[in-house]
Design brief:
Layout lengths: L3 E3 L2 E2 L2 E2 L3 E3 L2 H4 L3 H12 L1 H12 L9 H13 L3 E5 L5 E5 L3 E11 L13 E3 L2 E3 L7 H16 L6 E8 L9 H10 L6 E7 L3 E6 L1 E10 L3 E2 L9 H12 L10 E10 L5 E2 L2 E10 L2 H25 L7 E10 L2 E2 L5 H13 L4 E5 L4 H5 L4 E5 L3 E3 L7 E3 L4 H15 L3
Parallel strand pairs: 7-10, 7-11, 11-21, 12-20
Antiparallel strand pairs: 1-4, 2-3, 5-6, 6-10, 8-9, 9-23, 12-19, 12-21, 13-17, 13-18, 14-16, 15-17, 22-23
Helix pairs in contact: 2-5, 2-11, 3-5, 5-11, 7-8, 9-11
């Protein structure tokens, strides 16, 4: 098959060349046809796997039990050198002619739901309902199906593919799994990275950056009546939240903010000695993210000074601003080869795809200069991150076929 070599510029860094096969050419080979037909015929099995994986709890920082499930499944579908790295990612290899990894195909293990959440999945016709059933139990099921189909069809690739069930994508996980994989675990950087972590047939080519902080006010504290006149950590938090709530942000590039958690004080009749809040700032633009980050710190400092100045006490509050998460802003041009490869695969399969922004594991490789995108796994998510999260399985087999065709296009078929 014709090999197409190209260089991709990502996050201002030059990436290694990627060799690819045309999706339409791939579709003309009997082995690929067998694999695609197999995926359509066995989509019920893929859905069963989606449910089975999802009913294993996996809060961020507690993904080990679900990871062990995928150790077994990776081994059963014929992946080699199946292992857990030091961060907790589960990795399986499908060796190609070239041992250097050409592609990482990933999905994340963790969910936003705390320990004790009922994660049982209910079926109602074409709908599956359960926390995490789409985000990202679908992605995990898809990458497993891709590996299984390649094995069943006896496909040999030119490049090695790493299948990765990674940790720490959600919330305060801060993309720690993929950070470790690409900066600590792999000696050779992959030529491309795909995470299956979106709804339907989305193509996430714009990574939303975020800065997250825990902001803690400290003070003397005291009895609400006897020590009245001391500055209050909770009052300072209130002043800060009031200022944050008045931020003006641009619609384009979309920029957002929220105070997601607040806690403090010891009792109803005490002046709060400590109080903290966690703040999430996001933007599609690096400059805009830096600007709202500056505004946040200014607002916090102003709130501190106002609370201290309001009272005549010599005892003052202090404040600590602690970063708890940083996700880079990133973008793949719509005409970048990795994006065009997906669009070509979608056209071959008759899929109407959509370019969009998102916050996925692909942000790390993009920042490292590795061509990377996030993809939907077919079907449709409804209400992700809610207890009523649902997944519509209608024609979901197209998502597994798509992931296979794109993976083979990048890795190349012998």
């Amino acid at each position: 098959m014709k090999r197409l070599s190209f260089l991709l510029l990502a996050s201002l860094a030059l990436a290694a060349p990627i060799s690819a096969d045309s999706p339409s050419q791939l579709l003309s080979t009997l082995a690929v046809q067998r694999a695609l037909n197999y995926l359509r015929a066995t989509e019920p099995d893929t859905i069963d796997e989606q449910i089975a994986g999802c009913e294993i709890p996996a809060p961020s920082f507690d993904e080990a039990t679900r990871a062990e499930h995928y150790r077994q499944r990776f081994t059963e579908v014929g992946l080699k050198n199946v292992r857990m790295d030091l961060e907790g990612n589960m990795i399986g290899e499908r060796p190609g002619i070239k041992r250097v990894p050409t592609l990482v195909l990933a999905a994340h293990l963790d969910t936003v739901f705390p320990a004790g959440t009922d994660v049982r999945v209910r079926r109602e016709g074409n709908m599956l309902k359960g926390p995490g059933i789409g985000d990202d139990c679908r992605g995990l099921a898809v990458i497993l199906a891709v590996a299984r189909a390649m094995n069943e069809a006896h496909i040999e690739t030119r490049g090695t593919i790493l299948f990765v069930a990674d940790v720490g994508e959600e919330g305060l996980g801060n993309l720690r799994g993929v950070r470790h994989l690409l900066t600590e675990d792999l000696q050779d950087k992959p030529a491309a990275f795909i995470t299956i972590d979106s709804s339907g047939f989305d193509i996430v080519n714009r990574e939303i950056g975020s800065h997250r902080y825990r902001i803690t006010f400290h003070g003397p504290g005291g009895h609400s009546f006897l020590a009245f006149g001391l500055p209050s950590a909770i009052h300072a938090i209130g002043r800060a939240i009031d200022k944050i709530s008045r931020f003006k942000v641009p619609a384009q590039p979309k920029t957002t903010f929220t105070v997601g958690r607040v806690e403090g004080g010891t009792s109803v009749n005490s002046i709060a000695r400590t109080a903290w809040m966690e703040v999430d700032l996001r933007s599609e633009g690096a400059e805009e993210l830096a600007r709202i980050d500056f505004d946040l710190k200014q607002a916090v400092q102003a709130a501190l000074e106002e609370e201290n100045a309001f009272w005549s006490s010599d005892q003052k509050l202090t404040v600590e601003v602690q970063p708890i998460g940083v996700r880079p802003v990133g973008k793949q041009d719509p005409h970048a080869p990795i994006v065009e490869s997906v669009l070509a695969a979608d056209a071959t399969l008759g899929i109407q795809s959509t370019l969009k922004s998102g916050s996925t594991d692909a942000g790390v490789p993009v920042a490292l200069g590795i061509p990377a995108i996030g993809l939907g796994g077919g079907g449709r998510w409804i209400g992700p991150h809610s207890l009523e999260e649902s997944f519509d399985t209608t024609d979901s087999y197209l998502g597994t076929q798509r992931a296979l065709l794109i993976s083979l296009s990048i890795a190349g078929v012998k």
